[in-house]
Amino acid sequence: MVIETWRALPSIAATRTRALQLVTQMECLGHHRASPRLVASAQLERARLALWDDDVQAAREALERARATLDWSEIMGRALFGNDADTLVEGRLRWMIHSGAAAQAVPELKQELQRAEDALRQRRALRLRILLALALERSGSGQQALRTLRAALRFAKQERFVRTFLDEGAPLAKLLRKLMVTRQPGDADVLPHLEQLMSMQPGQSKHNSKDLADMTETATRKEVEILHLVAEGLSNFAISERLFISETTVRHPFAQHQCEVRHQQPHAGGLLSHAV
Q: 106 near 132, Cβ under 8 Å?
């Protein structure tokens, strides 16, 4: 069963405060519904938000709470669609990259990436490859970082993945700019997707704040609706019947909506999938 949780991107005015409010709501709902996965996922999001602020201590504390809340070995043993979202492994490796241990994270990232590819978990492999690029850059292997990022872009452009890149915030934006500046003739195939990602960085939007707020609130209402139905124990099929949407939309809400938003306003809030 897929739990859909909230997270807004950090480029909207006051978004961080809104994101923290939503994460708190998610955690409270997890406690109310006795869902350790939901509670732990909220802590993973707290860790991510802390790293956006370069607060590695707060991120570490949130990761410790996530670790203590759930048996992650059971979660990692599943190969469900929703389990391609962040787990404690990605959270810990991301923390290592930001806390000065990027070089130590590299071999583990390579190992996890190989496991994901062997299991054909391509969405998880994409996230791990992006983290690997960041770890290589932070550890002084700039050229390897760019090659790894190119590989990530070549996969991402096929399905037009965007949020997986934007979720890593300013460090990845900096690496994307570096790739743009040092691009080579062989990068022509990824250039359109790279340019799209660059246009979605903070300060690049052509849309006004009212448009942003309207789209964010519209997405949030439906996210809340799906989340409450899942927390009540309804299956994906039952939710799709109740809300008159497809099961695919329940498993990965707003796939179509986000595609439209990417053209209209890439900074609008989005979803992060988790599984129980």
A: yes
Q: What is the pLDDT of residues 176-190, one digit of tens each?
A: 999 999 988 888 999
Domain count, the chain: 2
For the chain, how far is it from start to end, CA to CA, in angstroms? 6
**Distance between CA atoms of residues 6 and 13, nearest Å:** 17
Task: Give the model's confidence band at 111: pLDDT under 50 very low, under 70 low, under 90 confident, else very high.
Answer: very high
Last residue of one domain, picked from the residues 199, 220, 248: 199
Phi-psi region of 239 (alpha: psi -120 to 50; beta: other; left: phi over 0): alpha
- Structural domain boundaries enclosing 252: 1-70+211-276
Q: Which residues contact 40 (CB under 8 A, 6 or more apart)?
A: 30, 65, 66, 69, 70, 72, 88
Q: How far apart are CA 183 and CA 185, in angstroms?
A: 7
Residues 118-137: what's their mean pLDDT? 94
